[in-house]
Design brief:
5 strands; 139 residues; binds tetrahydrodeoxyuridine; alpha+beta
Length: 139
């Protein structure tokens, strides 16, 4: 799937965000290795801490469906659903990506529109991250 289509999918998902507290809409479109795409939105909660980010929504939907290999994620967001700037993933979401993705290969695409976007590897946004391999090293 090309970047423009993945970006369009994320942007089209933005209105579904459930954000009665922050009014900050975030949406993600996660591309699996097999070519399928899972979208995610942030879902807030009156108790605040149960809130889940759009990126983790997308990952958990995909992992629930048996997906384990991923190539890229598009993230977009903005107050009242209006995209004015890039929306970088929070630290917790970066760590969830680290569980399933190759830091050197997985692409994180921050999008303002189909033509205006920035692309990073997971390693660039989470250098020296702790991953599944580290548990087996005994360090
Ligand atoms: N949010 C995300 O969905 N993804 C991020 O990586 C950053 C923050 C959401 C959580 C909350 O609903 C709102 O943005 C404001 O923090």
């Amino acid at each position: 799937m090309d970047r423009q289509t993945l970006i369009r999918t994320a942007i089209e998902t933005l209105p579904s965000s459930y954000v009665p507290y922050s009014h900050f809409h975030v949406a993600a479109a996660l591309l699996c290795r097999d070519g399928t795409v899972y979208t995610g939105i942030n879902i807030e909660n009156a108790a605040y801490t149960p809130t889940i980010c759009a990126e983790r929504s997308a990952f958990f939907r995909a992992v629930n469906e048996g997906k384990r290999e991923f190539d890229a994620i598009v993230i977009c967001g903005g107050r009242e659903g209006v995209i004015t700037d890039y929306c970088p993933p929070c630290g917790v979401c970066r760590q969830v990506m680290r569980e399933f993705c190759d830091p050197k290969a997985f692409k994180i695409i921050l999008a303002k529109s189909e033509t205006e976007y920035k692309e990073f590897t997971l390693e660039e946004l989470l250098p020296l991250g702790f991953g599944p391999e580290d548990l087996g090293r005994g360090n």
